[in-house]
## 1
Amino acid sequence: MRLRLPLSLRSVLLACSVLFSTVASASVSDGNLGNVMYVGDSITHGVNSGSWRWAMHKIFADNGISYTEKGIMTGNYSGGVAAGTSYGGRIFQNLHSSAASARTYEIAGRTNSSSYGRFDGSNIKNWLGLSTEKTQGGTYTGQTFTGADTPDTFFLLAGTNDLLSDNNNNSTLHLRLDGVTYLLLSDMDSIVSSIRTANSHASILVMTIPCWTQHSNGNLAETHQAVATYNESLKEWGAENAANGVKVIDINAGIIDVASSTPFYGVRSMFHNPTADGLHPNAQGDLLMAGNLAKGMGYAGRSAGQERKAAHELGVNFGQTPSITQQTLTAKGFTANNVTISNNTINFNKSGSSTLTYNWGSSQGQDKGYTVDFTLRLGNGATGGWDTTNNFSLNLGNGTLNVNEAYIQWGSTILYSRDMSANADSIRVAYVAGDNAHGLNAGYYIWLGDVLIGEAQTAAGGSSSGLTFSYSGTLDAILSNLALDGSLSYAPSTSGITGPEALYLANGGASSALKPGMIEWTTGAAATAVATAGANATYNARNGTNSNIASITGTGSTKFIYANNGAYGSADSRQDLWVTLGEGVSSDNGWIGGHTSGDLYGDIHLRLAEGAIGKSTVFGTVNGGTVHGDIYLEFSSSTGTYDTSFTNGEADRTSVAGAYATAVNGDITMVFNDGVFSHRIFGGLYTGNKTISGSTSLYINGGTFMNEIYAGNKTDGTISQGTSLTVTGTDAILGKADGDNWTWTLLCGGNKASGTINGGTAITLKDIAATTGDGSEHKFDKYAGTIDGKGGGTVNGEKKLVFDHYTTSFLGTLQNFDKVQVTGNSDLALDKALGNTVASLTVDAGSALRFNQAQGATLDITNNGTIRTSHNLTLKSADTGTGTYWVEGGTLDLAGQAVSGKISISAGALANTAGLGAGSVSVSGITGNVNLGGLDGSKLNSINMGSGTGTISGLTGHADLSGSDTQLRLSAANMGADGTGIIQFNDAANSTLTLGNLTLTLTADAVALLAAPGDYAFHVTNAALHADTNHITLSEYNGMAWDITRTEGGQVIISFGQLDAMVIDKGASKNVTSASTLGATPSVTNNGTLNIDLSAATAPEDKTTTIRYLAGTEAGAVVNTGTDSDVIITLLNETSADPDKPGNTAYAGSIEGAAQLVKDGEQRLTIDGSVTASALDVQQGELVLQNTKESSIISGALNVEQDAALTLNSASLAAGDLAGSGSITLNGGALLTIARDTLSDLTLHASVTGSGTMKLDNCNLILGTDSNLGEDVLLHLGGGSLRLQDGSTIALEGLHQEQENGALHLGANGRLELASNDGKTYSFKGDITGTGAITHRGEGTQIILSSGNGGVDVSHTRAGGHLVLGDKDLAADGSMTYRDISIGSNTRDASGLDATADLSLMNNTTANTLSIASNGKLYLGGNPNQRAVQLVLTGSNGGVAADLNSGASLDLTVNTETLARSADNAWAAVKAENGSIRINGADPSINVNIYGLGTAGDWAILPEFTINAFYAENGLATANGETWTADMVNLTYAGFANLVYDISKILSDDGKLFQVHFTKLGDSPLKDFASTENQRAAVDSLWAVTSSPGSITPAMMEFLNAVGTAQAMGDTGALQSALSSYAGSGVTALHSAQKGALRDQVLHLRNRLSQMGASPQYINDDLPCFNAWIEGEGGYRKLDDRMDESGYKLNTWGGTFGFDVTCSDSFVWGAAFSASYGDLDAYMANGDLDSYYGNLFFRIQSGRWAHNVILTYGWNDASLDRTAGIPGAGMYAMHGSTSGSSYGAFYEGTYDLYLDENKTSAFQPLVNASVYKSRMDGFTESGGLGMSVDDMDSTYGTVGLGARLRGELSSNLTGRASMGELRVQVVQLLGDRKTTAALSPAGVPGAGFRVNGAREGATGVQAGAGITIPVGYTSSIFADVNADFRSRATSFNGSIGYRLTF
């Protein structure tokens, strides 16, 4: 019988709770969230989406999660989902407490000088009814959530704006992260505290900060990484606050782009507007956030209203443990092509296309859907780069799922980002037909595991008769766990939590409401009948209906009712019975049974459904033979009463029994959901010494039970496999009234009187929570009866009691249990002992147990949760759990046992602590004296007394608490000569106490003793105290100024009264926690760290202090002002005659923290470091900031009072507002940023001058006619606008604006002059209103992106500068309007005679008139989003619309749209609709420069074409009224098309239209510039490229444009450089260097070989002789470039290992392996050449003749980085890698001419020859101008003639002589000396060419020297140097080595 332990039981419990006027308590782990409040910022509010809350609502609806939304806000910030929208029958109210731009400190209610526009200044304390005062004052009158509306569950997502929107300079977030994290987590602490105050049982689910793409708030990689780092800190914070109900959940899985080079970077398609607002998720991002959140909560993922089925339950599957072979695939109907099948997987990595197909015949399609499930691992992750182009595809219906190494995609839309090489989750794709009535859209749904990652994805159609998996890549693509179903759509199975409400099933399907123990009833058709009524009647349901499935009703009492009567079935023909007894069925005087008489083969399922009356006893089987099967009894009738019986004696009366005198070969299960049971219940045998071969299980879900319940037998009989009894929830009533008393029902896992149970007993109390209200007094949470694990008879096996999610007190009595387990997040309090029989106690993680009574027995405890005790508790054995013991009284006796967890004690005692580990005990929140029972000090972790008083005694040894903060509360008893230490050691004389941070608080009687200034002693301990006074502070004291001066013995000495000047040395620190301490200090010199923490003070005067004459010379010094923004610190520099008060001071360090700073006094304070504060008020004198490295940040307002001054010297200062009328000077590029939270007007009263930048965020800056803003100041608008007064003229360095929500208001006839000096570029984007003029007069660039204004003139006057005008979005259909446009000044600066004043129009423009001076240039075009740009002039100034002075220039962009428009002769790039276009000057001429920005295809297909440049309705004229002639227009053409076309000029007969005609060239014009063979090859290649327009890459197009421009300018040098770099002769260096390196390697080996062999002056009688040697080698090779034929420089290092055997006086052989690593430089290239060689060598000595032979084989790994292009116009980087190989042979012969009679010196003539073959394999470069390079191979050799002089130099102590040699030879190089390569541009094979490398000289001279020095008897060291000199090439190399003979 298959049992389903139903998660939806709680739906019935909730319904029952209404009847009993109770409410089940909320619990995340139960799926009952209760009241829910979502708290956060715009991501929770929802920007153009319903937010992740809407996605969570769907998860809750799918899974029956119970929740009620609460919040002060309704709806989304923009777009989104309307409140009241329904999904799955559940309404989304869209309630929350979130607001766009909200900060965490606003939610917490911390003042931070903010405007607090969000939430109307309210905070979470207001919302939860904890306070009526808003954050910055005022009374909160909004909605509160208290009483029944108090939230039970909080979802908190906050911190994005704190991290990215505050402080205005997020490029420094990574530098400020520690401080920002501290503030943020402090605010989170405050929020949690408020929540727990309102609801101490609240669950707080905190979400990590989401990733993002691009946003104005911060896009640096360092910023992304900083937020990721903060998330890790947040998780640690969450773990520390787990006891407060906090759980931090990471919601970024799948949203982070794993392939991005930027850390913590989101997938762009998952955000609202990824380039402008890549911060707010769209619906896909919301879906993944919600899925991750639910998964982190342990909840089931979305089902999309579909029934869940595991893969092995689908129609076509390969088993629960899949067996996939070629045979099983074929048998299941799959067709596999080009795949590898092994280990139950299918790998698609074969070369070519691999497929797997399946056809399931006629499809269900859109009617019912279909399902595919599989697991896929793909690729190797980041190794070798992410492959996101080769997709593994599932073609299903008309949709395609694409998976690559980094992404899961639907089509091209990314659904999830993951390293698929590590994927272990199944992927499920189902076509879902939809359920429009309940908000479920049709389409494809995709799951990863059980997390829905794709929702209602669309494809044409949506029906399918099969599927195809395909892959053409070469990576591993391993498919496993394959299953499918062509008939229906199914959601994946899940182990996640579902809730108490009905699960959503699409299209009216009903979710199962099975309670614990219930089974799914058969779906077979039931026969119906009415039971025969009568006092003696018997009714057999099977016989009466002739069916095994029956539904029976009744009209009166039937004495005996059976599901079956008589023998039925056989071992080979089992007959399962499904009988439902329904309306009216009763038995007044007999019984009801599942079976009677004879044997039954089959399972019995007997259900008393709603309406059944019952009345008498119910048996599973009665008076039968044997039931060969399981018995299932279910009681679900609210009208059922079981109060009469077949017996009259009360002792025997029974309501239910499993069997009566019948054997059962199976299990017995009873499920009690409803009804009244007046008498006993037995899960096993009532009578008869029979056997139940299985187990018995009782489930108490509801009903009333008035007598004892036994899971076992009444009397004799055996249960073979144990018993279990489970009580779930509090709906069941267990007991009965006895007069005024109440008698609780006994629960027993065993027998009543006798019988045997094998396999043990188990009783489980599950989901029990406290209940209140009428009728709750007899709920199970009040149960005070007895629960017995054994009963009578015999129980063999463990007797276990389980408290599973038991969250209240247990008041009953426990007896006869061996083991107790507390699990399922229980919070259990035991009012009685566990009982003497209990030997084992387990508390699982997440659960807590409180002992309210002493436990008499010792216990084996495994505590992974929490155990609290205020009474005596003794351990029996070691506790290996990791939980915590909280000792609140009594004695915890550890019996010397090891405890792996922690102990926290607030009162009481510990005993026998020897088994504890280091740092395992904490003293916390003292409520009385604590005795640690001789605890060794090393085992003490921390002491924090809190507000309690008492002593801590019983310590021994040495306690080191320096790693934790210590807080002690001292009283008068701890002061003075007679005082005692508050921490007592048993052996004080031999003990020490070491403390880190120590905070002291004083009781009232201690404060009373502080009557006068002086030193006071406070006794901390009776042992020796080691503590740094800088880390000791006095808290909660508001009397005299004080300072911690020293420690003596176990005492701390504190001075009270007037203090001396404060001097803090470098490396030292000083902590100040009292305002009076600084107030009493005459001056402060800080070269270390001064920590000021006044946050504990409550009175305003105690939060205000003064630092006088701050000074210091150390840049690393810090003044830390703390985190409290209510603290005010005055920096005072006043005039004084006192020489100790210097007036002006300089401080080299920084000031950090949240305090408010005030600069006062008429003297100057200079600060070199950064300043961070919540407000800065410069009231008097001058404050100078010189922080060049870090930004100063004022989160609130900056105020500079009149007559006060603030100077920024190359510094950066950001503030939240600006006030005052003082002087602000910005020197050396300083930056002043003012950033308000919301957009508002800012009238500038202060004077801001200098050469820096003033940046304003959310400010509308208003400037008067007398501007306070200096003309050298750059105005940077980060949002907001600039407003001029009517008629005013404002001059600025430039106008820069990041966002388009601002504007420029010129007023009436206002004038804005912009300089943009020093070549700077600034950009403004927004609307322009008013009338007047904008003039640009600088040498830099000013960009204005706006639709313009017909009442505004624009002009650019200065040569060398540039004014760019464009539509706000540079849209393809964008346009602009201005009044008059003027360019240039008709004068040229002497320093820039060739410079022009440039004005660019990036979109179609309408203007009144145009004026271009002789040095002016108008540029039409360049907008990448617009094809053709036109200037239309509508005015006619005296008949002239455009005035062009002689020398004026027009730059015109030409493309195919220009061609199309030019077909209409009334269209022209510059068109005067009402006037003429006039050229002024005595010699009228203008310059027209034409550029082609189209793709190559725009041009190469056209043999000729014409474009219209000028059209004037009143004619093209000169100043004297003549019509233009063609020679008045100096026409140039640049770019790619200049390589292809010739141009000519056409003037229309009517003199109105000027055209340019293009004719295609017959050959490349570049040939005239090529001067080398390589350049000529490049010319031919480029000409071939222009003939293949479809193959031209964007980079190649850019290169061709640059080449064409250089050709138009006649720039021979640039062209030749470009052609040579394109030819890329540097690739030949790989092969040339390969050949040279091989020859060098053979020479190294030749030098060794020539010294081998037996010495001729000795008799060698110990041969053969074996030798091994190793040498290190280094070398340098150079081949000079020959013009653009590449040589190379090769620097190498490496080594050789070899061995040789001297076989005889005449023969030696050996082998060697060499490795060489080289750095290569070549013509416009560099790279690596690594070479490896294997060698065999032989030496034959025949008299004076010697013959040396070397055979070598080598292989190479090489890479090359190359550049090409035109310097100044664009260079491109290419990269290629390849391999190569070589082989060859070398021979050398020598003859010895001895120079002495001992033959110790010889002159050797020598001759040698060699032959080699080398090949470097072909490769294709990556990069802009990458080439495909063919194989390079050469055959070459050498012959040499020379001599060697060698001889002995000296002898060592062993008589062995050192040898030296000199050698020289002439070498002739033969064969292929020149290296050539065949190249072609990648993708254009028809443009191939050959390129030559440099050739080295044929004849060379080689010289060398060597020395060998013996070491001991058998070894030597040696060294060699070699050189090779020849034409254009040189080589030097050397080696040093060690040789051993053995």
## 2
Amino acid sequence: MGDDDRLSSRVEVCRSPDGSWVATGGSACSNVIRTSRYTVWNFLPLNLFEQFMHPANFFFLVIAVLQSIQPVSTTNGVPTMMLPLSIVLTVSGIRAATEDLQRHRSDWELAMRQYLCNAGGKFVHQHSADITVGQIIRLEADQEVPADVLLLHSHHARGHCFVETSSLDGESTLKVKVALPTTQSAGELVYDRLTIRYEEPNADIESFRGLIGIHGVAGAEGEVQHRLSMANLLLRGTVLKNTEHVIGVVVFTGDETKIRCNSFVTQQAQTIRRSSLALVANRMLIGLFLIQLLMCIAATVVCQLQARNVLVKHYYLKFSDSDIKLEGVRRFFTYVILMAQMVPISFVISTELVKTAMAFMVPLDDEMNACAIRTSSLIDELGQVGIVVSDKTGTLTENRMQLRQMFVGPDLAMYGSGDTEISRRLASSATLNQRGPRTSQRWTDMLSEKMDNVRRWTKNTDGESNVFSTTSPHVYDGRQAVETALLQGNVALQRILLHFAVSNTISPVVDETSGSVLYQSSSPDELELCEFARGVGYELRGVQGGLTTVAVHGTSTVALKRLTTLEFNSKRKRATLIFDLNDGSQEPIAIMCKGADNVIIPLLDPATVCPTSLPARLRTMAERGMRTLVFAEGRRSRDWWRQRSSEWERLAHLPEEGAELGHSRGSCSDECRICSGAAHIERDAGLTFLGCSGLEDALQFLVPETICALTRAGIKLVMLTGDKPETALSIAVASNFAHTTESVVHIEDSESSTIQQCIEKGEDSMRKREADPQMEQFSMMIEGTTLAKLLTMDNATINRLLQVHAHPSCLSLICARATPAIKASVVLHLRRYHRRKIGAVLAIGDGANDEGMIRRADIGVGIAGLEGSTASRAADVSIASFRQLHTLMFVHGVWSYDRVAKLSHFIFYKSALVPIGMFAFGLVSAFSGQQLYPDVLITVQNVFFTALPVLAVGIFDRLFEREELLNYSNLIYRAVGRQALFNARSFTTWMLSSVFDGLVAFSFVFVQLCNEPKSDLTSASVGAFTALFIQVTIRVMEITSSVTVVHALAIGASLVVYLVAILLLDIIRISGIFGDAGELWSIRSHNGLETSLVIIMGVAVPLLARLMRHAVVYLWGMNPVDLIREHVQEAERRRRKEKSALEVVEMNTGAI
């Protein structure tokens, strides 16, 4: 009772006279889960706040305010900037509202699910959102648990039920939960009051501590108390399976449930994630702000210096001699308004529109079926991924174990060839891996070949195609040999098959429709072995009242009485079941033990013979990626068990505290009496070796090839799984996360080595590969407890590990036994250390246990599959399978990043053209504040005149064609990664080009004004503005990589819009609506030889300058993208030529 003081939560549930149950105490936390960002009430203020956090939006708000101040305004006090700013804010707000509305709908669907809750003495339907702590709830088969529920009663007589925990730990196999003995035996709610004390809400999904007092139990006086553990708790998100119904009491709701405590939802909801390109663009915007500020200060200083000598003399400038200093301040703000166009107001709206359009187009791809882009603002980040963090179960694998090989008896008779994914991968020269891949194998050719194979596999005997599946048809090839040996009476094989059938936690369920027996288990290994035993004649028929029934070859039945189970945990690494065979022998007690070889072999009776070649056989199976199990069995008399049973029953019911704390999950101390008692029974059981098995968890279709393509593209890999290290390592090798088990450096904290020493081993491997580049890459592996300790250490130690991981010699980092909280912490550290050095962090998973890491990553990808939709709802991108990540990143990611980079460069370029000319004009006009270009043209040029062509490039342009991206992803993705297309250097190049082009346009205006005395400023400036417009249009054509009809139509429409706008402004001007009537701009500004030369030279000079620059760059050295384009085009020409030659040879051969 020493730890009971920490059980601070308390709820009391009492039966009222009308039969209903009333709860008092407990948390008032709502059971509504909110993954959306906004509500109806906070959308407008919160969205506006977020939008004005963007430097450009805030800047233009300031400009609009300045335009409203008459003394400094250049627009007569009219805030003309509010029109384009309002358009930007409205479009961005609509996009944000649309995306958040989808999340609201998902949350609403979850909240509206119906559950049976006790009210008025009976169970009535109630929405999930209305469930509260202390409420009695009845769950039906296949229902998802809506909150954390304490199990009181189960339909099964023994009080157990089965739940699928795939959304928590990534395993689709079933876990067993048990009701409290008193509440189970008493019947459904046959008591008066429950008093429950338990721990505060926490993120530990493997531990639950509490105490319950039950009052009014028939035959019991006073209060009956029971300690509570995880075995009694049904967690939110799990699914009830193979159980008709259960009854429980709610103890945690909503964000206080254990899975929600793991997801970091509250903290992450306050974090606004932006793509790497957006962050760089923000820094460039700040740089432009500073440059603009310096230009305004320079203009003010020059204006002050020339005030008395020049400006005061010209009355129309309204420059007062009485207060020159005050007028200087006014001129500063005037130039802030005049130079405002240097910061592009169309940047935000253009990028938002382009990203939204691209997000809409991705699901239209035939290979991206069931894909959904939930956060369109991050779509360009898919082209900048430097690290992929992946879950294992359900993400890389199919959650299905397959038996591949067995060795039985002292002579190790082999059944099955042991053909696995790894053995096939190593043997196949066509497999894409880094150790000698067949470089001529193109992704599209390989995909077509494998899809053809899949279609052949799914053909039935009639030649008709079955339902399409990408699952490999590979089956256990040792079955026929097993059946033959059974016919020959192989006793050793019979014993191990009986072991397969009964030594498990499987509960057979009879299908009422077909009468067949269905198996569900908490262990995929047990399920596969039991299914195999049934296939060869040893069928587990039922487990009832402790009696296990097995039908042998359909002709006889064996009934075994299960006496007890010595449970498996990660410390023991084995499970032992003890049966009474009732076979009439002197030793009817069978002790069946199975587990890891390093724990089973030492337990074998020294008097028995253990095959000397067993370690080599086990090592070979492990190298082929199989999960190995060793089976042993002992026989003892009933007296032997009677002498030990009472002591074991006492030990088995010890509370998990003190030395036994954490026994169920294997974290108990070496003095744990439960573990010691179980080991004593096993050592005294006289165990003899029966055999060993090798099982493989099948990988999803094209997972190894996809992983290999990622590594060849220079992307670092991290596997975060809740599974045990052995399984994680075998899957890592099979999926190309690691080359071999020997190439893995283990990071552990033990008596023999510390974490720092293990990191030094990784650094040594790093230095060895630097000295010998031919040496294969190594991987690092770290277990959950060690990783948890590492995360509490100083940043220097964590950064050492991450530095090793970032080195090219390190292929991947594999983390086993990682809880959801650890997964999220690892992703956070990866982002902080690697984002600027390597690239963005992409996290991909499929279960609720992956939600935290998905939200913490730069971009989260969720797979909607067997483990539910929690991960896909929380993710930025939802896909159907892991292999779609290849197309998502290498095709749509590259396209999106290139389009947004071009769009950003171009918008900054064209926005600076006008302010540069204005500043140059100020140099010759004493910075009087006179505008060079008409204000109305300046206001609308970014939003209307050049919007269509650049949007066409941003939505439809293709840097490379789809097939080129798929087949040469290793070259192209490296070339565009790490901000290669948009960075400080490229930004500076574009801005210098803008400065040059703007000065050229101004110089010709100035020349015209000087040489033609009758010319007025408006006419000359409109002609120069036309030259700028044509120049910008040509620049759009220059940056276009793929010309389509859409591009041509957009350019034509832009020209028409400009001409129509000029004509409308002419009509307005001559009508005198806003002042005196004047001549037509379209005639005065674009007529005459001088004006024509201004337009022609204003376009030709910048164009010739760029052509000369491109020629110099080509001779000096092409940029990587252009080099790769030439390489790809040459490779494709060579391939087509070889294909044509091969077709000619085949035709000639056929003719002969």
